[in-house]
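Example record

One chain of 325 residues, shown exactly as stored in the release files.
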Amino acid sequence: MSDFKKVFLAKDTTIRFTPFSQNRLYGFTCENFENDSLISSIHYEVKMVCIQSYEDNSFSYEINRKQVYIDNTAPDLKIEQIADSCAQAIFPIQIKVSEEGEIIEVINHNDIKKRWPAIKDKLSKYYQGNIVSEILDSVESTLSNKTILEESICKTWFFHLYFRPIYNKYIKNESLQYTWESPVFGHQIINYDIQQSIEEYYSATDKLFINIKGKSIDKRSINEVLNGYSYPKSEMNGIKIQPLESEMEVQYKLYGEDRSIFSIIGTYKTKITEKKQRTTQIEIYHLPENSSFRPSSQPKQNNFSFWIEEERPKKKKAGFWSKLF
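Predicted structure tokens for this chain:
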């Protein structure tokens, strides 16, 4: 029998989050493998602070991203440099989050729109060509529309994994089951049937583990996904195909004091051919100021202004934005 502290003092328990008022620094890495060979990587650091709104019992975060490194170097290709510069309009970003941990809306959309013209003007003067103009017009279209911007950031790995519905009611020896959508191939979303559970004991360092495992329930073939189809074209035409094979596993480690995120490790494995497998490994980890850090449980009140939600238009793809995060 374990000597560690039990998470469950009864048959069920609800994991609630206490906003952290201290600034947090997180490291982010994303590595893509073909079989056992690393083919690309990206890493950066993120500054975050979380504030609670007592008016509607919601939370808000202010997030600022530092320098991005692609394959351990600052962006050097033209497309990478343009993407990195465009992202400067987004940060710092303020977002409103539900009690469960999911993004509700971008709060400071007007600030983002105001930052963009100067960035666009600078890029237009430095980079010439029709392709650059098309990219900048596409970015402007996304930044100018609050709904499309929200959908785009939710399809990037950091936001996608950090803001998930992990704060929930858990029952001992049972799992939550629902459909989980992940941007495994950039703007292409894969649907997974997942089991979400919490470990029975805290760790030796007083951390709580939430485990998520799932298999794809997507009806598209791998070729349809790679070719950008959002629906199972072959099946709709009466052609029998092999649905793509993909598995995912994500583990959240939470501080015992306030249930804030200490680390996230996610692994996505997708079969490309009989001899080729694509693996994406994502890690998000708190970088405390010292090794003895323990979070404070004192929340901070929200001083952000909330704006009226705009009309929601039809969804658009966000492939270019996967290069920003």
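Notes: The chain has two domains: 36-165, 169-297.
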